[in-house]
What we know:
Two copies of one chain form a homodimer. Chain A contains 16 helices and twelve strands. The first copy, chain A, is of the alpha/beta class. Chain A has an eight-stranded mixed sheet with strand order 5-2-1-6-7-10-11-12, sandwiched between helices. Chain A has a two-stranded antiparallel ribbon with strand order 3-4. In chain A, helix 9 packs antiparallel against helix 10. The termini of chain A are far apart. At the A-B interface, strand 4, helix 7, strand 11, strand 12 and helix 10 of A face strand 4, helix 7, strand 11, strand 12 and helix 10 of B.
Amino acid sequence: MSVAAILGAGVMGSAMCMPLADRGHTVRLTGTHLDEMIIESVRANGLHPKLNVTLPKQIAPFQHVAFAEAASGADLIVLGVSSAGIGWAIDRLCDVLPGPVPILMITKGMHPQTDTLHALPDYVERELKRRRGFDAKVSAIAGPCIAGELGARRHTGTVIVSRDMSEAQRLAEMLKTEYYHPRASEDMMGVELNAAFKNFFAIAVGWAAGRLETLPPAENRAFNHNAAAIVFSQAIKELAMLTRALGGREDTAYGMPGAGDLYVTCMAGRNSRLGNNLGRGLTYKQTKDGPMKGDTIEGAELGAAVAVSLRSMMDSGLLKQEELPLTVALLDALTRDAPLDIPFARLHP
Amino acid sequence: MSVAAILGAGVMGSAMCMPLADRGHTVRLTGTHLDEMIIESVRANGLHPKLNVTLPKQIAPFQHVAFAEAASGADLIVLGVSSAGIGWAIDRLCDVLPGPVPILMITKGMHPQTDTLHALPDYVERELKRRRGFDAKVSAIAGPCIAGELGARRHTGTVIVSRDMSEAQRLAEMLKTEYYHPRASEDMMGVELNAAFKNFFAIAVGWAAGRLETLPPAENRAFNHNAAAIVFSQAIKELAMLTRALGGREDTAYGMPGAGDLYVTCMAGRNSRLGNNLGRGLTYKQTKDGPMKGDTIEGAELGAAVAVSLRSMMDSGLLKQEELPLTVALLDALTRDAPLDIPFARLHP
């Protein structure tokens, strides 16, 4: 059995306690400075107040100041911070790790550069090498996984990706339970791109339900699922195109990290809710100043982070703009405060 | 402008009145013998009582006995009967058509033979040739399209498929409106297989919500969307495998006729409801004898119709059984009254 130290006690990092503890691993759950109340609650009675789940008794909770203690002797670091917290987390790892411990990232996002996007695990790996000289294996997990459901031990399938397939297989084997079904993949760019961009495209799918509220009621009280379905299948096409253009494997977009995760992301959550508001006719800024004030919306933050790189790749022809009408419309809505108009006539079959 | 005669005044055939009439075509809506009350209602006040929509004034309603009159001088026959009614419809076409009028099928299904499945439009085309010597062009439409939403003129994307691409393009051009977005395809087997089998796989996706009702309630009231998402992405994989094995184009499964239509089919409808009941632990027979007595469940009827052919193709190695675990589980549930067990551990990433 292994010793796993989780850094970041948000809902997704904490939900990983379930398969880890159920497989008999020692689990040390470490909050960030934003998680102090969560760790206090877990210490007091085991209850994770955001996940609304009582964590297994054998979980050891640590405050962020004690991360060195939590990481001491760990065989695996699980990185569960938000994408905005990745710089802070790299600093902590550089501070406390004595050597190249394997890292498993739950954090989603892309690291943009002028004319390309990098997978976040590659970035973390490079930073650990540059700053500490470590050759640490950095792997990652992608959904379809709603944290609260994993916390309740519902059947959940995930993909564990590493550039070293045997490492991905080792981690999948280490984590699998009767309800947790991780699969191994070595398509780092494909898995990470889909994990990040499914949030972005879920905004567009959410447009349909919001737009419905602005339409005159139909005699037969028809919904707007047909419109959502066009956008949904276009989103899969664009996920596949972006994946291919950035060097990933197209079939990743058609599997659990793409289509599967997009499906579950459209069922609920903040990305959909932003889409609903854009469908109602609000702009992104109006939504952030109004009904979603203070909310972290992952797909919108990703859009803002990658907009310059994606537009530059379209200008240079690395990406074909005419094949990405949904991406273009979303970038305009998220970074230029344009109304989100779904270009139905330009979507693909 | 054209004259279109629709045969079959169910919800989907009748919803086609909207784009046809809005494009200025003359539309003659002909019921089957099962649609007499519908046609009476449309005659009386325009209201389609199942679609719950008032049809455009220029629609001319015909009872089935007057189909010859409705078809007289038509440039296009739209076939909107159920898959069970296809034999009856072919008889009517052979009776009344004076020559090879183009046919556009809304009817979904596969025509099974010992060791393969045929697309229904190909079968209709062959029968018209065999019985009347006609070389009629038979095309078809596939969703994602909920009839009630098209009846309410909501944005709807479809694929029109013909073995003759220019015919598919001609029909798409003839039908497109501001809200109706048909695309042309020549992948007859791919489009028709996905249109039929998405109903079959939607049963499995519906399993998750039904199973949830049998589980002890979670502290955090977690749903079962993660499980549905694994099944959803596996369904897309198996749609693609079946498509490829039968000579269709794999990317059709990843587009509107596959992933897009599966998405909308999982939002509502009888296939999902059957899945819910199987998830609750009922068998197919118990469901048909109980909560869904008398209901036509398209995905289940397809499963029963193709089971012998698919099993024979698995036995002969034309289909790889180990790559189709969901198909196997569904066939067992639908034709051998086995409980539907989702083989989570055997699904693909």
